[in-house]
Specification:
The chain is mainly alpha-helical. It has one domain (about 1-20, about 25-115). Helices cover about 70% and strands about 0% of the residues. The chain is built from five helices and no strands. It has helices spanning about 1-20, 25-30, 35-45, 60-80, 90-115. Helix 1 (about 1-20) crosses helix 3 (about 35-45) and helix 4 (about 60-80) packs antiparallel against helix 5 (about 90-115).
């Protein structure tokens, strides 16, 4: 459960950092609920739908990596946090597999943004 929650927060952090031109950001900015909320909305509006990515995200490889990652996080996180209490919860094997894939996906996103 903590892996899924942390991965979601990490992606929001990454998007905040990347959208500001990969500059060092003040600690107050990372914890600002309004800034985080705006970024979450921006990500939700663009992903997983085949919508146009945010203006700050122009690299096709990053778009593909972020679309895949961001679209899988809500169900994974919610199934853990709410103990599968929804109409179509992920099975235990899917939960395990998706959790195991988080680190490689996060690493891939980071490596592609370093170029």
């Amino acid at each position: 459960m903590q892996t899924a929650q942390m991965a979601r927060e990490w992606v929001v952090n990454w998007a905040m950092w990347f959208s500001k031109g990969k500059i060092s950001l003040l600690s107050e900015y990372w914890r600002d609920n309004d800034a985080r909320g705006k970024m979450e909305c921006e990500l939700n509006d663009a992903f997983p739908a085949e919508e146009k990515p945010p203006e700050w995200l122009k690299d096709c490889d990053l778009v593909a990596a972020l679309r895949k990652l961001w679209s899988s996080l809500p169900n994974l996180r919610n199934d853990f946090a709410h103990c599968g209490m929804r109409k179509q919860p992920l099975g235990s094997e899917d939960l395990y597999d998706q959790t195991q894939n988080l680190l490689p996906q996060l690493r891939d996103l980071w490596q592609k943004s370093e170029l």
